[in-house]
Amino acid sequence: MSEPLFDRVALIGIGLIGSSLAHNIRAHGLARHIAITTRRAETLKRAEELKLGDSYHLDAAEAVRGADLVILCVPVGSCGAVTKEIAGALEPGAIVTDVGSVKGAVVQQMRPHLPETVHFVPAHPIAGTEQSGPDAGFRELFENRWCILTPPDGTDAEAIDRLKRFWEGCGSTVEIMTPDHHDLVLAIVSHVPHLIAYNIVGTAADLETVTQQEVVKFSASGFRDFTRIAASDPTMWRDVFLSNREAVLEMLARFSEDLASLQRAIRWGDGDTLFELFTRTRAIRRGIIEAGQDTAEPDFGREHGRHEPERK
Amino acid sequence: MSEPLFDRVALIGIGLIGSSLAHNIRAHGLARHIAITTRRAETLKRAEELKLGDSYHLDAAEAVRGADLVILCVPVGSCGAVTKEIAGALEPGAIVTDVGSVKGAVVQQMRPHLPETVHFVPAHPIAGTEQSGPDAGFRELFENRWCILTPPDGTDAEAIDRLKRFWEGCGSTVEIMTPDHHDLVLAIVSHVPHLIAYNIVGTAADLETVTQQEVVKFSASGFRDFTRIAASDPTMWRDVFLSNREAVLEMLARFSEDLASLQRAIRWGDGDTLFELFTRTRAIRRGIIEAGQDTAEPDFGREHGRHEPERK
């Protein structure tokens, strides 16, 4: 890489995504200066200990001053308030973007506060782990992942292109779509799966006939994978569901309808209905492996145990 | 290991579990002779090519003749028919066991056919991957995993102990419980999670507003893990749901009730209810990691891609 794409990047929020971006900007020389701001002094101090940036600010407005790229890495529900806070300090010509998992609501919350002089290009990197905080970030998080941009009609093409190159610099492939379509797609591939995972872990915790200790002990048989998803950041996910309400409720209604029909098949011993669905779902899995979104390796959840047997 | 625990083991069925057992019996010297039998000539031939056993039989009765351990590794729904087929050829004193994910129904189906002279000790190794067939097996599958035995009241203690040592020889830790309790535990930690995974993959496939290609493309955000589970063997899982009907329907009813209440919280913007659940589920995840049933490593599904970036 010859010239950095940006002079000064302001990262607002330094959790999993913010800190992973910091690692990327540094490693790939995407900007000359990384300004980090976050609400909690303790988190900011930790970011400094980890040497994630070049300057550290408790005042968000101070961080964005002079920045030609401003990235909001905060839960979706905080985007509006943060934008209001920084609006007056934004440089004309700056690109303002976010990393939120919902786009319609983010656009609604941020846009009214933004001056006409900046380029607003909402973004959503489809990457994450169940971990959070400044220690959770790592450089490879965005590699081979999709990043969806949802620029409003009439957005400056050059600004879109620069942000696209930024995400490509982090290893991602960029896709452009409308906020509404983004929210529908994510409702089914991400939001409803997370809700279901949270829900079954809750159902299991509340049982009287099976102890929580038994649930933990025998979790290897499917449940374990749900608990991983259900360990995701509670604030972020609360905001996602409240902000993408319509699409989530629509997908959830379909899910429940389909589940009721499987329940009926089980009750009446209709094995053919079950078998037909279970066969159909295998084809989708093959599609995902062929698309390089996962490997065909069997996952039995014990990468370490496999080579260093530790008997209990 | 000094003396093999068994003289001749008959493996009826040579899929993921059967072939993994064959690898274990050989590697740990658990028996002198491995007799393999399976219904399809093609599968039997493949088992022979893989050198999984010492003798190969299309006739199950022939395989069990002279065996002091007979393990049914067939889908739960076939256990009754197979038991009927081998009953007359079983040696007095032989231990007859299975590996089915449901125990109440298996006991009901197998027991009536078994002669009084054999020891019937149903078993369920809690281990598996989403793959199936004789090629899918590997030695480490049972390592550090639980194996649940559900011997009927009055079963010979020496027989239970021998089978326990057999599973310990495969690397598992053995737990003993009643068939009914087993079926309740497994309904919540395994059967319902699988049903839900199958269901959401089906719901996603049926959408008109989001294409299947989009679902595959953006699956990294949660959906992908469900497709892995939903790629499990259709016949095995159909039988599981039909055989553990009561417990599955009971757990499913609770799951749907809980989901309806989350749906209501989303509709009415009740963030506290969501946040409270999402926080509670994290504790269960910690329990699972502390119990050594999973690692805390973030899983973002691309072990290979991480080191050998393959851009598409």
From TrEMBL, chains A, B:
PROSITE patterns: PDH_ADH
Biochemical pathway: Amino-acid biosynthesis; L-tyrosine biosynthesis; (4-hydroxyphenyl)pyruvate from prephenate (NAD(+) route): step 1/1
Residue ranges of domain Prephenate/arogenate dehydrogenase in the record: 7-296
Species classification: Bacteria, Pseudomonadati, Pseudomonadota, Alphaproteobacteria, Hyphomicrobiales
Keyword Transcription attached: no
EC class: oxidoreductase
GO BP, sorted A to Z: tyrosine biosynthetic process
Swiss-Prot/TrEMBL keywords: Amino-acid biosynthesis, Aromatic amino acid biosynthesis, NAD, Oxidoreductase, Tyrosine biosynthesis
Name of the protein in its database record: prephenate dehydrogenase
InterPro entries: 6-PGluconate_DH-like_C_sf, NAD(P)-bd_dom_sf, PDH_C, PDH_N, Preph/Arog_dehydrog, Prephen_DH
Gene Ontology terms, MF aspect: NAD+ binding; prephenate dehydrogenase (NAD+) activity; prephenate dehydrogenase (NADP+) activity
